[in-house]
User: Fold this.
Amino acid sequence: MRMIAVVQSRIGSSRLPGKANASIAGRPMLAHVLSRAKAIPSIDRVVLVTTDHERDTPLTRIADDLNVSSVRGRDGDVLSWFLAAAEACGADAVMRLTGDCPLIAPEVCERVLADYRDLLEPSVEYVSNDTTVSGFPDGTDTEVFSMRLLQETAATVPQHAPWVHGDREHVTTWMRRTQPQRVVRYEQDYRHLKLSVDDRSDLERVRRIFGYLEHGDYALTATLAAVARAEG
Assistant:
């Protein structure tokens, strides 16, 4: 089974423009996300997807520096970017990651992948660690879905939900509304902890956390310990 991780990112952001390129511990935020994605054991390939606007070219350069390929497409139609990336890689399943989560934990992603691989219910083709219910902290989110389901979504969404509903921009909203799914849960409840970056205060918090992390230590336990030191 060929598994790929697709990281979506763009420079444009209404709350924090340019955040994907914002410096954290001396590196662009996107570089942290891609490096951590490459450290997921069962992932065969990591791909960056972004818009075809010139302003997003710096993101593809970051990917190039990390030997990560890029797929670019029309702004807003993120679903088509994912489909193009998956088809180009000959993927059997796709992991979705976002460029505003520089503290994703490879072992958490691997746990979700393992749950997907071990599924015994043929009807379930979508697994996540939905951080609104799983106990994992916000910013460690990941979703895995089959190539077949991605293709079905791309074929169905234009008829089922026009652009105004955002299903082509948010990629998996139609899947989550309509398909059987499983949620991988954490042993503790960290739903109150926000590790994603949406605005300036989030960025400053993450920068403080990185100040207490050893370079290359991507473990969730290390991140939680760094949070305790940064905010204690």
User: Anything to note?
Assistant: The beta strands are 3-8, 23-24, 27-28, 45-51, 69-73, 93-98, 126-128, 143-146, 182-183. Residues 2 and 91 are 5 Å apart (CA to CA).
